[in-house]
Amino acid sequence: MNENIKDKVVVITGASSGLGEAAARLLSAQGATVVLAARRIELLQELAHELNGGGGKAIAVETDVTDREQVKHLVNAAVEKYGRIDVMINNAGMMLLSPLEALKVDEWDNMIDINIKGVLYGIAAALPHMKKQKAGHIINVSSVAGHNVMPLGAVYCATKFAVRALSEGLRMEVKPYNLRTTIISPGAIDTELPSHISDEETAAGVQKLYEGHAIPADSFARAVVFAMTQPDDVDINEILFRPTSQES
Length: 248
What we know:
By secondary structure, the chain is of the alpha/beta class. The protein has a single domain, classed as 3-Layer(aba) Sandwich (Rossmann fold), CATH 3.40.50. It contains seven helices and seven strands. A seven-stranded parallel sheet has the order 3-2-1-4-5-6-7, sandwiched between helices. Strand 2, helix 2 and strand 3 form a beta-alpha-beta unit. Helix 1 crosses helix 7 and helix 3 runs parallel beside helix 4.
């Protein structure tokens, strides 16, 4: 077990699959207490049961990150049960790619609500506790798309650029409270994200990219561990990584 992770209380949104699930598994294996959040409570409960059965500590809290009160309840539940929150991983996200001219406005709204507001609500819920503790680490998940705008991804890219901007502002503001902040920007990772794309032509192109390049979700989990396990006086502010074979 990693002593920098052992017994840390880690809240993870979007933990029912993909990046969040992978992070939960690796952190639990290294001794962290994980508080799992997502809308799909059955999957969360199955994961929590598995982790607890393996000697870990995990609870599942049904959470829709677009609802501020639910996110506040999530963090408060962690603090009430375990006495503190050490790490907040704002991972829940949606990638709904399409041409702007397709006018999928409902999908734009959905991405803004999950990818931007969901992160803000996570920060709002965790920050008061971390300020009081004078300790904590907020990890926000952006994307390679938060660095490079791509065709068919204007709104998605905008939300991931926003995550980076919010995170950098947060970094500068929380120095008096001894808090650390990290942005993790993955490239093509083997998750459910491409399956949510409703534009058929776009979905086919993205699927081809992922089939040729996507790497396992535990690559993200290892990035989380790297950021968390640095000495207290080291703040890893941003990690950008791609599959070795991914060009853009």
